[in-house]
Write a structure and sequence with these properties.
single chain, mainly beta, globular
């Protein structure tokens, strides 16, 4: 794992080897990003967001990778079609809420202890 900092995640595209989307989450601040190499020598970016609400201690981990690298494994998911021809998968990973938004080129996976509806509303583009 290589910590790359709090800068604009899209600036780390050359290091990651794929085009990273700059994800903005309402009422959350980016705390840092890591570039992670997998066992298959593929690369993904992990971004960690923390709540700006001082009464809330929740965080959201966001993973971006070229399509097909991220998955829920054998966990049951629900699929929802969202804006711009994207699909979103909803499920759980290790007891936490998870939402994955997929395009033809990029998968973005959000994982958090906050409730699944709240996470979905935060991360899925409105239609």
């Amino acid at each position: 794992m290589n910590y790359v900092g709090k800068g604009n995640p899209a600036d780390f595209s050359p290091q990651a080897g794929f085009k990273i989307q700059n994800t903005q989450l309402a009422n959350y601040a980016l705390e840092g990003s890591d570039i992670i190499k997998t066992k298959e020598d593929k690369t993904l970016l992990r971004m960690c967001y923390t709540s700006l609400n001082k009464d809330e201690t929740s965080c959201i981990d966001c993973y971006q990778a070229p399509s097909g690298l991220l998955s829920f494994g054998k966990t049951a998911t629900r699929v929802v079609t969202v804006a711009n021809g994207q699909t979103a998968r909803l499920g759980e990973i290790d007891g936490q809420s998870a939402v994955m938004i997929s395009t033809h080129e990029l998968d973005t996976l959000f994982v958090s202890p906050i409730g699944s509806k709240k996470l979905f509303d935060l991360v899925v583009p409105s239609v």
